[in-house]
Amino acid sequence: MNKKKVLWITGAGGTVGSRLVLEAARRKHFEQIWAFTHTSGFIGNNPPGVAWSVLDITNQEALQAAARHNPPDVVVNLAAVTNVDACELFQNEAYRVNAGGPGQLAEICRQHGTHMLQVSTDYVFPGDESQPGPYREDSKPAPINHYGQTKLDGERAVVEVCGGQVPYTIVRPAQVYGPVAGNRQNFVTWLVSKLQARERVRICREQWSTPTLADDLAKVLLWIVDHERTGIYHAAGPQVLSLRAWLIMIVDFFELDGSLIEWTEVAASPQIAKRPLYSGLLCERLTEDIALGAPSVRGVSEGLAGVDWHLSGNSHCVYNANESV
Question: Is the pTM here over 0.85, yes or no?
Answer without folding.
Answer: yes
